Amino acid sequence: MEEKEHNKFFCPMKCEGEKVYDQPGDCPVCNMHLVPVGGNGNKNGQHKHDHGEHKKGHSHSTHSGGSGTFYCPMHPEVKQDHPGSCPKCGMDLVPDKPEEASEEHKAYKKMARKFWVALGLSIPVFIIAMSEFFPFLKLDEMASRKVWGWIEFALATPVVFYSSWDFFKRGWSSVRRWSPNMWTLISIGVGAAYLFSVFALIIPGAFPGQFKDANGNVHLYFEAAAVILTLVLLGQVLELRAHSKTNSAIKALLNLVPPVARVIRNGEETEIPLEEVQEGDILKVRPGEKIPVDGIVTTGNAVVDESMITGEPIPVDKSSNDKLTGGTINGNTTFEMKAEKVGNDTLLAQIIDMVNQASRSRAPIQKLADVVAKYFVQIVVSVAIITFGIWAIWGPEPAYVYAFVNAIAVLIIACPCALGLATPMSIMVGSGRMAQAGVLVKDASAIEEMNKVDTLIIDKTGTITEGKPALKSFHSFGELSDKDILRIAAAVDANSEHPLAEAIVKGAKEQGFKLQKVEQFEAITGKGVKGILDGKSIGLGNSRLSDDFGATLPEEQQEMVKKWQLTGQTVMFLLIEYKVEGIISVADTIKASSAKAIRDLQSMGVKVYMLTGDNKFTAKAVADELELDGFEADCQPEDKFNRVKELQARGQKVAMAGDGINDAPALEQANVGIAMGTGTDIAMQSAEITLVKGDLDGIVRARELSHKVMRNIKQNLFFAFVYNALGVPVAAGILFPFFGILLSPIIAAVAMSFSSVSVISNALRLRKI
Question: Is 96 a catalytic residue?
Answer without folding.
Answer: no
